[in-house]
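B., you asked whether I could sanity-check this one before it goes into the benchmark set. Here's the sequence:
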Amino acid sequence: GGGGACKLHPTCTGQGVALQVCEGPTETPTFRTFPWPIVIQPLAGGVGRSLPAVAYVHNVSPSYHLVMVVGGFADAKKTHALTRVDVFDVQAGAWLPQTSPLLTPRGAPLLAWTRVGHQRGQVLVTGGLDANGQTLTTGEVLTFDLVTRKVLRSWVANELPPPGRVFAGAAALSTGHVLIAGGAGRAGDVLQASSSMLLYNPR
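And here's what the prediction gave me:
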């Protein structure tokens, strides 16, 4: 049915009955084109950057919907790591006033939003490259304060194993742990790719 054609397959069953094979209709795949609208709001302060980390942070009650843009490099050559933390209020459609910077410059940091941990709704920022191009082992926690509308930050007690990580994937788990996969670490003057996975406890 459905416009397909049926034919006898050359292979027979054990009872000598030919198998009838029906082929479905041949269709040419179609592809939809979706436009990529340009976001009118540029990055905060009009400051361009490469390899920042971005997280969507939201809550139901009290309600807030934020996008955090963290760290990165001020240049395409990845030589000037940034401490910037910019927060976009999705509901207001505007960037919040400049908040507290990171505790250390981080280019291409690892970032994960964990809904559990020593404080709900914390954003874990760890690893990345420092101002000297070295991979970082330290981590810090960013928490949005609803009263002051600013980001509070503090060091994380547990560090990544040396030599740290950059360009890795980070995913928050329901336990409050963060799974870090792959990436690279500095070994002398070169970055060496890592095949390991870490279960990171930021508490």
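One thing to flag: The mean pLDDT is 81. Otherwise nothing jumped out at me.
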